[in-house]
Amino acid sequence: MKGYRSKGITLGALLAVVGPGLLAGLSDDDPAGITTYSILGANYGYQLLWVLLLSTVALVLFHGLAARMGVVTGQGLIGLVRQRYGVRVGAAVLAALVVANVGTTCAEFAGIAAGSELFGISRYVSVPTAAVIVSLLVLRGSFHRVEHFLLLLSTVFLAYIASGILSRPDWGAAVHGMLVPSLPGNGAAVAIVTATVGTTLAPWGLTFIQSYAVDKKLRTTDLPLERVDVITGAILTGIIGFFVVVACAATLHRNGRSIVDAADAAVALEPLAGAAASKLFAVGLIGAAFLAASVLPLSTAYSVCEYTGVEAAIDDPYRDATAFYLTFGLVTVLGALTVLVPNVPLVTILVASQVLNAVLLIPLLFVMVGIGRDGDLMGRFTMGRASTIAYSLTTAVVVLCVAALAVTALFT
Questions:
Q1: Are the CB atoms for 96 and 57 separated by under 8 Å?
Q2: FRET partner for 303 with CA separation of 20 to 30 A, picked from 9, 24, 60, 73?
Q3: pTM of this prediction?
Q4: Rounded to whole angstroms, how far apart are CA atoms 149 and 264?
Q5: Which residues contact 5 (CB under 8 A, 6 or more apart)?
Q6: CB count in 10 Å sphere of residue 390
Q7: Alpha carbon distances (Å) from 154 to 19, 186, 283
Q8: DSSP per-residue codes, 56-93
Q9: In 10 A of CB 3, how many CB atoms?
């Protein structure tokens, strides 16, 4: 009986901590990410699956660092940037983050529109409905209700696992592609590799997980369990990406079919893997877009309030957190309305926001390592020499990949 009680307490403590890592990780599998994975599988089959391992390692390291910084300092990332590097640097980072987040939010609502249209639902119905649901969720819900809803919504990613299995992939080739690195000698392959790494470590994901850990009021004693949360979220993110790739590799690549985005992949899957695989892929796209469309405005609202020094949280009433709720609402409305404008260049917006995310990510990684090494801010949780080397090496790899992605996007 004592053993069961001990296990129950441990499980209860873990469930109380779970949230920041899972939501930040899974929301990275947004329409831009799913599109990248789909093109990777359609164009290169199983060959580049090893890139997902690299992305997952980077996600574990930097999401873990962001969560630790938030718990130890009690501040979000933008607040720490302002405190350590000054008002002007903080303002520049915040401005770039807000612009990139608005552009990426447009991409999320575009994913909702594309996915719903596969089921015959007009974007003029699905996008406003999604915007209202997302807004009511935050405006009317408590922190725990919001968190529980988002965690429940994240289960929609099981659709991609099912779609991958229904596609009947070559599991041996998939394992080989994941464990044995190889890279075709052409610019397109380099671009998709860098896009895969770059789309995983999004700046808004880093700011969200740190601010969310603060809002959840996690303590330093929760850090071991929060690390489990982060690792679980990162691994699940990698698993979902894996099944998206194998679904497209087993069908589209095998049959020589090319695609432009994830909605194309869902349509193309039907004659090759059956209606069930196609519909599940489309459901996953809608769910992924919905989750990210909820998280992005939250990330932006947290960051704006941190920079201005306004304490605000999801549990606060509107009168006490006006800036928080107005920022959330403004980003949501801008993202939704942009998608509804006839002939709006959504692809251009998506590419521009990804490039801006890539450019912003580079200084953010250096800033995070700098803060992690700051003994005055981190105390006994300051990075040691071994950790510094690990983070620096990972940063170097990510910076090279993200820089290549930005250059590719600018000149194509």
A1: no
A2: 60
A3: 0.87
A4: 29
A5: none
A6: 14
A7: 11, 36, 12
A8: HHHHHHHHHHHHHHHHHHS--HHHHHHHHH-HHHHHHH
A9: 7
